[in-house]
Write a structure and sequence with these properties.
Chains: A mainly alpha (269), B mainly alpha (541), C alpha+beta (349)
Distance between the termini of chain B: 65 Å
Number of helices of chain B: 19
CATH topology of one domain in chain C: Rieske Iron-sulfur Protein
Structural class of chain B: mainly alpha
Strand content of chain C: 15-25%
Helix content of chain C: 25-40%
Shape of chain C: extended
Oligomer: heterotrimer
CATH superfamily of one domain in chain C: Rieske [2Fe-2S] iron-sulphur domain
CATH superfamily of one domain in chain B: Cytochrome Bc1 Complex, Chain C
Radius of gyration of chain C: 38 Å
Order of helices and strands of chain B: HHEHEEHHHHHHEEHHHEEHEHHHEEHEHH
Strand order of the largest sheet of chain C: 5-6-7-8-13
Number of strands of chain B: 11
Strand content of chain B: 5-15%
């Protein structure tokens, strides 16, 4: 994963992703569009919706209702859009394992192709934000410093200065943003998953979202620099205090014990 | 000073320099009293040295930092080498701290040494103070020195706070904003105090410069004076020592300042400095570049002060939001009550020595350090206080406890609210029982010897463990502590049968004295007769 | 037993004000200072030599480390970041300087202590303590001297001098107090007003553009500042400290407070971003519960119910700004906040 995420930042990564996407689209096209060209897109789309519906009724309908209208166990999905599905299922939050203050992220159990089908189905229930394309969330060339300022204004209050996460009321929390896929960060800002408010393009344009993603990548990825040494979780004075007590004062007391101890005698009494 | 001899003169050069100084400063008389001064060896007696040395390190590195730091809130645009802040508006204070961290070679190291040393200084003072407390080293004649030390701790807290605020970063700015809110809660004069402190409305453009002179001049100046006085008194009183063979209340047993302690204490300075330098090399502290410049409309979760202010943070976090509006005025109890409790928490431990000496009524000098178990009530009180302090520290970090232990922040807050009252009581009871248990064990050890681990089978099949009797030194050590008898009010009628007037304080004192030294509150030391009987009889074990 | 002895000696003890307490005596006599036992180094010259070499080696290591410090200073560029396990991507200069300095200092200390521990005499010796309090004759002499000095000054006799002197000494610090007056302006009504006023457009903090109602979707969170407040302004920090605004859109039917609904625009509510507890910028908005939490001290406000306090140390609700839409369709303030924003204070009322 490390290698992959490192390569993702490569200047040519966008080109590679684009090529892959083209190839995948081509492949899907080949698989799903044996019919005439004019109808191909539509057919592929409706096929995806059909497949998505099947997946939906198995994995999601028990909480969100058979038609996505919502039940007491889960909110309505009408109008949440494909981006919300891609985020929730792509980060493994959905399907939820157990009720609680908040649904945590886990390993995704659907493949990306299945997620796309689910997203197509949910998007068909009502208009909503669609899954962002690479050109929307790719942070290359974005303004890191501006992103930092935007992050401190809009995000740091919940996610901490550098996105280490933080507590909310009654057991809820804002998760750590370390090494979260740029697409998922973008989708989260756009759709406002669970208790997170949304930051729609009308108040935070796409360019600014890219700035924020670029800032996060600069300060909170596995390659971010911490010039002063151990980051101590990036949590501020609490972890610094613990470190100072345990390793600073602890080491000094150990030294003091050595200084004050009696030197070994020639013969034990 | 050179000690090489100059063949043409009668006295060596070093001696001549010393003569010169003696004629003007009287150094020979000074040296006579102090050069071979005896210091006892115990690791816990070196905690104060950790504090002194980290204070010196803080001063040294602090002076270096002033060469580059600009205590100004004038706005500038950052164009230094840290990319994620380029083009940002910030104060000169923040900008110059960035410059120190990224463009001055070694600047980051000195900044980190300064800050780590400050955390360790305060932590060291805390532990040192507790050492003095639990060994009863605050008793006569050292009460004044206890207060000097306490003042150093409190001033250290505020020096730390003002220093933490200087870079004008988002985290410290949030702390300063809190301070402004706390000052404003003071009835009647709060808003005036706040406007005078900040030169007008918050944040204004003055507080960094004002905090700067407080941080580098006013408070450290007072602290330096107090520290010198503290040290002079340590020399004057001579150090306490633990009881042991040949160690009495009238002497101090150890090794001389020259050469042993000159080398040990002098070497310890370098050890402390070395350890802190290594800590600063490997661990980041207060990375202001990640925190960003202060803006009153921005904030980050997990906003905490440095650890020594953490208990006040806990107080303020768990206080219910009481606010009284009467006759057009607001009494902000939700902020003002914690502001009042904050010094009270500290004062509780500071006044304890005076309360104890009133209860014991003991006017003698004490130079033998108690083992904590032999003063159960004092030890229980100290542990209760630490528990109180720790509960508040938990409250001060409730958000991080919540995220790291998957708890609800509201539940932790309620826990702290209750534990604030309950936990010290539980700690007191439990500690006292543990102390009494340890006293019993000591008594048994003196009478029956230590468990040797050798199991013997008696002829009739019973298994017994052989107890090895203690040697005279160990026996003395375990019984040399002092045990008070509870103070009596005395007869309530005098010899003429007239009722004596007994004041309420006298009654309270007698009650407390019983709680300290009455039956069940300390285990009587084994007597020589008991020991004789057991060692001679051999009939039972 | 011993208590009896003590009570017998008590009157005398009380007379000298020393030891006016009863204590249990020690059951065993002090065996006295144990005899000194030699260390290996004291009896074996080769062991002593080994210790000497160890000390010298430590001092030598310190010299090497100092050379390393200087070399690091010269060699490593200030902005070079390298990966060092397990510390992460760190400044190599900081790491090298700190480590070499640490070793250089630590070895001096370790050498000195090892020297003291192994080669200097470790014979423990007692030193007598002397009572701190002065003997009675010294005390009597001091008191007599003091009385004489006091009498010679006439301090007690010449009451006029004494009283005027006290008066002068009491008054003179007032000059110092006066000098503090210009530390700051007076509060007056500054805490009651912000930059908001009728007709001021709500400017998006992110884009610096005025906001339209349709920009804000249900569940979104937006921050705004008053029209005309630029980041470059000299008093930006002071103004934003009071004027910072938090905008959320709640379905009008979910708003429980009547006044809140009245002051909103189609469910868009504008609240002060400054916590009423001690002034942290509050904005941890949970869009499903409409709770907003303060990250500093966890005061929690319910934005769907007049932003009243539902948890934590804040004493009163967040002030709401009345908003509407101007002719061009932009959101605007319909006046200033009706109450002071931020922390409560005595004159707040």
């Amino acid at each position: 994963m490390k290698k992959l995420s490192a390569r993702r930042r490569h200047p040519l990564a966008a080109v590679v992703v684009l090529l892959l996407a083209l190839a995948a689209t081509g492949g899907l096209y080949a698989a799903f569009a044996p019919a005439g060209k004019a109808q191909a897109d539509e057919t592929a789309q409706s096929l995806a919706i059909d497949e998505g519906k099947k997946l939906y009724s198995v994995g999601c309908a028990s909480c969100h209702g058979t038609g996505g209208q919502g039940t007491s166990d889960g909110p309505s999905l009408v109008g949440v859009g494909a981006a919300a599905v891609d985020f929730q299922v792509g980060t493994g939050r959905m399907p939820a394992q157990q009720p609680g203050a908040q649904v945590p992220k886990k390993k995704a159990i659907y493949s990306q192709a299945q997620i796309d089908q689910l997203a197509a189905y949910v998007a068909s229930l009502g208009a909503g934000p669609s899954v962002p394309t690479d050109s929307q969330y790719n942070p290359s060339g974005a303004d890191i410093a501006k992103g930092g300022e935007l992050f401190r204004t809009n995000c740091a209050q919940c996610h901490n200065f550098t996105g280490e996460g933080g507590a909310l009321t009654n057991g809820k929390f804002a998760p750590s943003l370390e090494d979260v896929d740029p697409k998922h960060i973008y989708e989260a800002m756009q759709t406002g998953p669970q208790n997170m408010p949304s930051f729609p393009d009308t108040t935070m344009p796409q360019k600014q979202k890219q700035d924020i993603i670029a800032y996060l990548h600069a300060v909170n990825s596995d390659k971010s620099a911490s010039p002063g040494g151990l980051k101590l979780g990036g949590l501020g004075p609490v972890s610094e205090g613990l470190f100072g007590w345990i390793f600073g004062l602890g080491a000094l007391i150990a030294v003091a014990i050595w200084v004050a101890a009696h030197t070994a005698k020639a013969k034990k009494s | 000073m050179s000690t090489t001899t100059d063949a043409r003169r009668e006295a060596p050069a070093g001696e001549r320099i010393a003569d010169w100084a003696d004629g003007r400063l009287g150094i020979y008389s000074l040296a006579k009293a102090n050069m071979r001064k005896i210091f006892p060896d115990h690791w816990s007696f070196m905690l104060g040295e950790i504090c002194m040395y980290s204070f010196i390190i803080i001063i040294l590195t602090g002076v270096y930092l002033t060469l580059f730091f600009h205590p100004s809130m004038n706005e500038v645009v950052y164009d230094g080498s840290y990319v994620p802040l380029q083009g940002m508006h910030m104060s000169e204070a923040f900008n110059s701290t960035m410059h120190i961290s990224f463009d001055v070679r070694g600047g980051l190291l000195i900044r980190q040494i300064h800050h780590w040393a400050a955390l360790i200084f305060l932590a060291g003072m805390f532990v040192h103070m507790m050492r003095v407390f639990f060994t009863g080293a605050f008793r006569k004649p050292r009460e004044v020195n206890w207060l000097f030390g306490f003042l150093l701790f409190v001033l250290g807290m505020f020096t730390g706070f003002t220093g933490y605020s200087l870079p004008d970063d988002l985290l410290s700015g949030t702390g300063v904003r809190f301070m402004e809110g706390a000052i404003m809660s003071v009835p009647i004069v709060g808003t005036y105090l706040s406007f005078f402190l900040f030169g007008g409305e918050f944040p204004g453009g003055d507080f960094v410069a004002r905090f700067y002179s407080v941080h580098i001049l006013l408070l450290p100046g007072i602290m330096l004076g107090l520290m010198v006085a503290h040290l002079i008194l340590v020399f004057y009183h001579k150090h306490t020592q633990f009881a042991g063979p040949g160690r009495t209340n009238k002497n101090v047993v150890g090794m001389p300042l020259l050469p042993v302690y000159m080398a040990k204490a002098g070497g310890f300075f370098f050890l402390v400095f070395g350890v802190i330098a290594v800590v600063a090399a490997i661990a980041s502290i207060n990375p202001i570049w990640a925190i960003g410049p202060y803006r009153p409309d921005q904030v980050s979760t997990g906003a905490q002060p440095d650890w020594y202010m953490g208990f006040s943070e806990g107080l303020i976090r768990v206080m219910p939001g009481w606010e009284i509006n009467l006759w057009g005025h607001t009494l902000v109890l939700g902020v003002f009550i914690p502001l009042v409790i904050f010094p009270l928490v500290l004062a509780t431990i500071a006044v304890y020595p005076f309360i104890e000496s009133w209860i014991t009524g003991d006017k003698r000098e004490h130079h033998i350090a108690d083992r904590p178990r032999n003063a159960p009530t004092r030890t229980a009180f100290g542990v209760a206080w630490i528990t109180w302090y720790m509960v508040l520290l938990i409250g001060g970090g409730n958000d991080l406890w919540a995220t790291h232990f998957h708890l609800s922040i509201n539940v932790i807050t309620w826990f702290v609210r209750i534990a604030f009252f309950v936990a010290p009581v539980l700690a007191f009871v439990a500690t006292k029982r543990i102390c009494l248990g340890l006293q019993r064990r000591d008594a048994a050890k003196v009478l029956h010897g230590r468990e040797s681990g050798i199991i013997k089978r008696l002829p009739h099949g019973e298994f017994v463990e052989i107890h090895e009797p203690l040697d005279a030194n160990a026996r003395y050590k375990l019984t040399a502590h002092e045990q008070y008898k509870p103070a009596e009010i005395g007869p309530t009628v005098d010899e003429n049968g007239v009722a004596r007037k007994i004041s309420r304080t006298q009654k309270l004192r007698a009650k407390l004295s019983k709680g300290y030294f009455g039956e069940g509150n300390q285990i009587p030391k084994p007597t020589a007769e008991e020991y004789e009987e057991i060692t001679s009889g051999h009939g039972h074990h | 037993m011993s208590s009896q002895e003590n009570s017998e000696s008590l009157p005398e003890a009380q007379a000298t004000a020393h030891g006016a307490v009863e204590t249990a005596g020690d059951p065993f006599a002090d065996p006295g200072l144990p005899a000194h036992k030699p260390r290996i180094q004291d009896i074996d010259e080769r062991a002593a030599k080994r210790s000497e070499r160890a000390v010298a080696f430590l001092f030598f290591l310190s010299m090497v480390a100092t050379v390393g410090f200087i070399a690091s200073y010269v060699i490593f560029p200030v902005d070079k970041i390298v990966f060092i396990f397990p510390f992460g991507h760190v400044s190599v200069l900081n790491f090298a300087l700190g480590l070499t300095l640490g070793v250089a200092l630590f070895c001096i200390g370790a050498g000195a202590v090892h020297w003291a521990r192994t080669l200097m005499s470790d014979v423990e010796m007692p030193a007598e303590r002397h009572e701190i309090a002065a003997p009675p004759e010294v005390k009597a002499q001091v008191l007599a001297d003091f009385k004489q000095g006091a009498a010679e000054s006439g301090f007690g006799r010449r009451k006029l001098i004494r009283n005027t002197m006290f008066g002068a000494l009491a008054l003179v610090p007032l000059s110092g107090v006066m000098l503090l007056r210009d530390l700051g302006t007076l509060p007056e009504d500054k805490l009651r007003h912000t930059m908001w006023s009728k007709g001021k457009a709500l400017i998006n903090m992110n884009t610096n553009e005025p906001l339209r109602p349709e920009d804000l979707t249900v569940g979104s969170l937006t921050f705004a500042k008053p029209e005309g407040l630029e980041e470059t302004a000299e008093d930006f920090q002071t103004q934003i400290a009071k004027a910072a605004l938090m905008l959320v859109r709640i379905k009008p039917e979910d708003i429980k407070d009547k006044r809140e609904l009245e002051w909103s625009h189609q469910g868009i509510v504008a609240y002060s971003k400054i916590c009423t507890h001690v002034g942290c910028p509050i904005s941890l908005y949970e869009q499903q519960t409409h709770h907003v939490l303060c990250p500093c001290h966890q005061s929690t406000f319910d934005l769907s119910d007049g932003a009243r306090v539902i948890f934590g140390p804040a004493g009163h609700a967040l002030p709401q700004l009345r908003i509407g839409v101007n002719d061009e369709g932009y959101l605007e303030a319909l006046g200033d906040f009706e109450e002071p924003v931020g922390p409560a204070f005595w004159e707040r009322g």
